[in-house]
């Protein structure tokens, strides 16, 4: 399965393992909760999805790369204790708590999360001395003599043997005690994530034209040449920062992330052309409705790669607007919920101290956000969201002080007014994003009428999470019409393929 489907399956497993019955017991007993064994090529996102899953499921996460551990750190150090058997005192060997098990208890204390995921990476690459302990860990959920706390699930990850000479095959007894999930690289699944993560448009449009270069692993006389999803995402981040610093990513820099010389060289050449197209095609002008006939003719007679790059630039501009609208909407929704809960206290219980009350509300929200951040439950985007909500509440508090409001009813009237002003700003931005989408369709129809570029454009809109979210609220006639045509074409191709197979 691809990484998106694997993430969904792990989430479903966590929900199943943590479900309790009316007696407070786990529906699936702890000893019957098979560890998940995630196996797939390096760099396809196995580690990354665990961070996402822990945040989405609101459970703790403790991660270890087991190859960094010795037998002693994994299972604990031996010590001699005294015990009495049949009236005689005997010396007994015991073990200190494993560093890994101890870190789970530390996470529980820090975060207050009593349920979580213990993620062990590269589990099938352990040393010979540690291998028996890993088998015991998977079979019995213990390190040494110490069990993993109840409510903590085990997810282990490893690479297939063709990618790592240190890989050890698990025996049938062990494999029969795990839930094995095989993950394969899948560009379509990654592309959907890439739009949400804000991957650089040059990377997305390059891989759209050369999807075979998304993941490649080749053995040569000089070693492995490879390109991985992790490499593309990390390179994307560097390109974005380099652009802010007015620096250039050339073939040598690309090769530091895409360690396949031919692909790195090809992408560097493409990136250079991408910047040229960005200069040649003033996309912001197009999205503001200033569509020049000369520009349309230039795009219509361009090479296929150039056409796809222009389409990618349009999509990048649109997604920026869609993302901003969604961000504003999320902040407005959070502030609305806070104001809704504050209405009754301000109208009744806190009539004479509205500023003090609102400051308390802001401080509680800040404390809750800090606790979620400390527990590892917030992504960078979540942190930015919480900060925008706090900035809004802080502005409300300062404005109430400035207006010298002493009455709760008057305070709520001001709050409602300021919120409505923010709502009006959101409505304006939403309308602007809608106009930009219509202008993009105007350009696409003028330059690429009936061409594959419109198919790519619709397909990418369907793939982009910000675009899908926006189109759920904005009814774009041309989007639905072209989408219907695209679906019809796909169904027709599928039917024809089936007929060919039957023949």
Can you summarize this structure?
This protein has 503 residues and is an alpha/beta fold.
Describe this structure in words.
With 503 residues, the protein is of the alpha/beta class. The chain is built from 20 helices and eleven strands. It has helices at residues 3-18, 46-57, 71-75, 99-111, 131-140, 172-175, 187-197, 201-209, 229-244, 251-255, 261-280, 283-287, 293-300, 304-347, 354-374, 380-403, 408-448, 452-463, 465-471, 477-502; strands spanning 36-40, 60-65, 78-85, 88-95, 116-121, 142-143, 146-147, 152-158, 179-183, 216-220, 223-227. It has a five-stranded parallel β-sheet, sandwiched between helices. Strand 10 and strand 11 (223-227) form a beta hairpin. Helix 14 packs across helix 15. It is flat.
Highlighted features:
two-stranded antiparallel sheet; 20 helices; alpha/beta; 503 residues; 12% strand; 5-stranded parallel sheet
| Helix residue percentage | 55-70%
Strand residue content: 5-15%
Question: In this structure, how is the largest beta sheet organized?
Answer: 5 strands, parallel
Could you give the order of strands across the largest sheet?
2-5-8-1-9
Contiguous uncertain segments of 5+ residues: none
Shape: flat
Number of strands: 11
Over the alpha carbons, how many angstroms does the gyration radius reach? Answer: 28 Å
* Count of helical regions: 20
Query: What do the pLDDT scores average to?
Result: 87
User: Span from first to last CA?
Assistant: 30 Å
